[in-house]
Amino acid sequence: ALYPRWVSVFFLRGASLPDPEKRLSGTGNVARHFVLKSAEDIDEPAVVTLIGLALEAGLPLSGVLPGRLVVKSISAKQRTRSPS
Hints:
Helix content: 10-25%
Order of helices and strands: EEH
Number of helices: 1
Strand order of the largest sheet: 1-2
Distance between the termini: 37 Å
Structural class: alpha+beta
Mean pLDDT: 80
Strand content: 5-15%
């Protein structure tokens, strides 16, 4: 996930990954994430190890599972759905 001042890297099945340096954040039963505040953070040994472990334990990236993008918008004032 991209934010103006950092990037969050999310791992499905992150709750089951070993994390001795406590880089992963979150309290969910499945997903965890860590924050990259600069481009240099991606080269830290703990981050490289986590990415490697996630790739070994994660879902296959061969296109077996269909991907999709969901964009949601929450607005205080909703427009009418039918043409006026």
